[in-house]
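Please complete every field before forwarding. Incomplete forms are returned to the sender.

SECTION A: IDENTIFIERS
Entry label: holo-392
Bound molecule: zinc ion
Molecule representation: SMILES string

SECTION B: INPUTS
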Amino acid sequence: MKRTIKSITIALCMAAVCLLPAAASPGLAFTYDPTAPAQEQPDAVDPSGTPAAGPSDPSVAEDPSEPATTEPTAPVTTKPTQTTTKKPTQPTTKKPTTTKATTTTAAPRKDPTPVLSSVKAGYRSILLGWFPVKNAVGYEIYLKQENKEKTIIKVGIENTSTLTKLNCGKKYTVKVRSVKKKDGKKIRSEWSESKTVTVSHTDWEMLKKKYQNKGDVNELIFVRYKGGTKADLLLYEKNAKGKWKLVLSCPAYVGKKGIDKKKEGDGKTPKGQFPITCAFGIKADPGSKMQYTKINKHHYWCADKRYNQMVDLREKPHSCSGEHLIDHTKQYAYAMNIGYNNSGEKGKGFAIFLHCFGYYKYTLGCVAVSKTNMIKILQTCGDGTMICIYRK
Ligand SMILES: [Zn+2]
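SECTION C: PREDICTED COMPLEX
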């Protein structure tokens, strides 16, 4: 079959857009208590490994299915289950609030309002943390899915809570208030400031755990597909203790038609978990951790006899219908092969790479990042690197 689309890709070079600040790490939202000490800011990078209470089957991550979200007329919303964990995240915050004597003249608060310290979306879950309120006998969490009824969840005196069994990809608003008892009566504080987060489709934490104990996997690339042709790319590296540490977070483009590739030419990027099988590029080796092939005019990514393999025509002379790699100056300045269709099944798709931005804001089935970020990825990723591509 004649294949005209010279695959790959092209995606606008927007180096400037890259390098999201770590704090903008996707899926997270924070809170900030103006009066809280700075060190109380949640760690955006690697959140203490609190397990999101998702299904325990790792294979679920293969294809996170969307739960039925609608209960058309039910006035009562899905009752999220809720688990509380005692965490010693005690902020010793009892600082005199000397700040801002200027603000509202409002009547003295009946009670101190709790302040959310972290709100983190996970797979079908939200992990909440707040600064404890003195003498509280419990807390109440307000949870509301967009366009649905609110739910009030009572929790104990812990100052964290994980709300689970939420709906994938849905937006939720949360806030918290404290409950005290006076003369046998419950006194509720006002609600804290609210936060809105979108619950993940994919159990990214589970994926991190899955590869945690795999000794040959020391780098993990997450491509968290956001819709359209956009994704966030996160690169994790195992630290000395074998824990995942986020070393890069940047925007990426995927296929013109999104993800979940089925066949050659469908304009989609594959979905799933794949090994990174090799590094190459038209430019000189930037200090690649993996063995790097510098591309010359003899290199093709074959689409015929050696479907989905790199070939050097000097070694395997044939009239190759595959991609002449050196022609894709921008995209293949630096690249790595994503091990999709490693077996080389014809028609399933070939030349699926992680490469540099081309000229457009999409690829034809690859994943593209800025050149600067591609260099960083090459320098970080050794043999055994896995790339996981799923909906955010
Ligand atoms: Zn060929």
